[in-house]
Design brief:
The complex is a heterodimer of chains A (about 325) and B (about 250). Chain A has a 6-stranded mixed sheet with strand order 6-7-8-3-9-10, with helices on both faces. A 4-stranded antiparallel sheet of chain A has the order 2-1-4-5, covered by helices on one side. Chain A contains 12 helices and 14 strands. Chain A folds into 2 domains: about 180 residues, P-loop containing nucleotide triphosphate hydrolases (Rossmann fold), CATH 3.40.50; about 60 residues, Alpha-Beta Plaits (2-Layer Sandwich). Chain B has one domain. Chain B has 10 helices and no strands. Chain B is elongated, with a radius of gyration of 19 Å. Classes of the chains: A alpha/beta (about 325), B mainly alpha (about 250).
């Protein structure tokens, strides 16, 4: 994955936004390298959509600085708009126009000219598997088709930075796969993707870097691997043949969590080979036979819940 | 300018796709025309028949204003649909003229309403409407109709922008369609009960309808024309400023 530092496509420092008296973004910092996929992860209400709406020039912000595609968000909004594309959570397509007309509308607004506009519309219809439905009204499209048309409309202007706000929410698994393929294709073509999602597997699958947003703050940032590393949740699970062995093992090892019913013992561990060898050595020295051993490395779910579900102490520890 | 033209094309295409909109803005006024001429007309003519002519001649200007009202209602719904479906948000993130989408709605809607009005006048003539206007008065009629349409359309745009749901547009449509009944559209306010008469003489539709009537029937317009223009310009300005303020605000959804 291309996470090597290059020119930042999005640079955000101390971004703040309140609605009424409610602080939604409490000074967030983000940096997204050009040609990479960045995922903003967070529970509902964390401020993900607000961040996208600000960075895509839709709403104003209260404080901090932001540059998108090399332009200042506050003073060069139109320059930013020339370089971005936005596909929101709800498909912003014109229901009373056909798929093709929707794309040509975008082409006209981008002043592509008649011939080039039609050519690009035809290309996109083909690429998003909508050619067969090109002359049908968008109101007759299925959810997946609407989402594809929405993204196709976003691509008409060939944006360098694309904001995708929960692009697969509500899609069936197949449409979701198609969307992922499309996103990968865009990144391969040098486009920068700013993706918000509630789906951890989606971030894990697509994102070069991830930031976890909770309560208006970035509580963790890094690659998926970095986030998982050193996180509570990684453990080795030992199962024993009987209660006596379980008892003996619990005495021989520190810091364990035992389950008398299942005859298992959980030992915190990063799951690495040296740690496993050490653990097995200790058990052997105490002459305890293990019936079964399994290693559990934390997945993004663990990261997510550790960061957003268990209060601030865990959050601080991970930072 | 070119963005506004693109948006106008979009608006015209919407009308082509959804001809019900246009049909309704013509069918409803024509239906009312039939009901009032055919059902109540005889009684009204016999009772306090407006001086100098048939009841239909008295009625048409009010029906024209109702046509404008129906058109405005459709515009409010269309603008609100753009807001609630999120397509306005899409336009806002593009490097295009900001107000183009509103301009497209206003110009498209005005053209649609004026076409409806012409067709309604045509239908009225089939039913016996005999206007008596010279070219200058026709020009005045067209001018005032355009002005009124612009006024109600800008108000409709503002209402469409402010409503959170399509249902919230309902009260505007109700008021626009109710006001003609409480005006000089169907009967002269002189015949109304005191409170309603007071309202009917002071609400904006009455001077506008009276002026249209004067222009179309070739009767004196008097100072009512000034009042009609003042109301139209005032409403247009209020609608425009309200819509602009709403559009400049950060979108809520």
């Amino acid at each position: 994955m291309a996470s090597a530092p290059s020119r930042p496509a999005i640079e955000v420092t101390g971004l703040r936004k309140s609605f009424g008296g409610t602080v939604v973004l409490d000074g967030i910092d983000l940096a997204v390298a050009e040609g990479t996929t960045f995922s903003l992860l967070g529970p509902n209400g964390a401020g993900k959509t607000t961040a996208v709406r600000i960075l895509s020039t839709l709403i104003r912000f209260d404080g901090g600085q932001a540059r998108v595609a090399g332009h200042d968000l506050a003073t060069e909004a139109d320059a930013v708009r020339r370089n971005i594309g936005v596909t929101g959570q709800f498909s912003a397509v014109d229901d009373l126009l056909t798929g093709e007309e929707n794309l040509i509308l975008m082409a006209d607004l981008h002043r592509l000219g008649r011939v080039e506009g039609r050519r690009r519309a035809a290309d996109l219809l083909d690429r998003f598997d909508l050619t067969g439905a090109a002359r049908k009204l968008a109101s007759t499209y299925s959810g997946g088709m609407r989402r594809r048309l929405d993204l196709a409309m976003t691509l008409v202007g060939e944006p360098r930075v694309i904001f995708l706000d929960e692009p697969t929410t509500g899609l069936d698994p197949r449409s979701r796969q198609t969307m992922w393929e499309t996103i990968r294709g865009l990144v391969a073509g040098g486009v920068t993707i700013f993706l918000t999602t509630q789906y951890l597997d989606e971030a894990d699958e697509l994102a070069d870097r991830i930031a976890v947003l909770d309560g208006g703050k970035v509580v963790a940032a890094g690659t998926a691997e970095e986030l998982k590393r050193g996180l509570p949740g990684g453990h080795v699970r030992l199962r024993f043949a009987d209660a006596a062995r379980l008892q003996a093992a619990a005495q021989a090892l520190d810091d364990t969590t035992r389950d008398d019913e299942a005859l298992t013992l959980q030992v915190p561990s990063d799951g690495g080979v040296p740690a496993l060898r050490l653990l097995l050595d200790r058990l052997e020295r105490a002459d305890i036979e293990v019936a079964e051993l399994s290693v559990h490395t934390p997945d993004l779910d663990d990261v997510f819940f550790a960061l957003t579900g268990r209060g601030t102490t865990t959050t601080e520890a991970v930072r | 300018m070119s963005d506004a033209l693109t948006m106008l094309r979009r608006n015209v295409r919407h009308t082509q796709r959804n001809p019900t909109t246009l049909v309704m803005t013509i069918a409803l006024p024509v239906f009312l025309l039939l009901v009032f001429v055919g059902v109540f007309g005889g009684a009204l003519n016999a009772g306090f028949g407006p001086p100098g002519g048939d009841y239909i001649d008295y009625l048409v200007p009010g029906i024209l204003l109702m046509t404008v009202g129906y058109g405005a209602g459709q515009t409010a719904i269309a603008v609100n649909r753009d807001v609630t479906t999120g397509i306005i948000s899409r336009f806002r993130t593009m490097a295009i003229s900001r107000a183009a989408v509103l301009t497209g709605h206003v110009v498209g809607s005005t053209i649609r309403t004026l076409i409806s009005a012409v067709l309604v006048v045509g239908a009225a003539m089939l039913f016996g409407f005999r206007p008596d206007a010279d070219p200058a008065r026709w020009l005045g009629t067209i001018g005032l109709m355009t002005l009124v349409t612009l006024a109600l359309t800008w108000l409709a745009v503002a209402v469409g922008l402010s409503a959170r749901t399509p249902e919230a547009v309902g009260p505007f449509i109700f008021v626009v369609q109710l006001l003609p009944f409480l005006s000089s559209a169907f009967v002269p306010p002189d015949s109304m009960s005191a409170a309603i008469r007071w309202f009917a003489t002071h609400e904006p539709f009455t001077p506008i309808i009276d002026t249209l009537r004067g222009l179309l029937l070739g009767t004196p317009v008097e100072h009512g024309g000034i009042v009609a223009i003042a109301w139209s310009v005032g409403l247009a300005l209020a609608g425009y400023l309200w819509a602009r303020a709403l559009f400049r605000r950060d979108p809520a959804a």
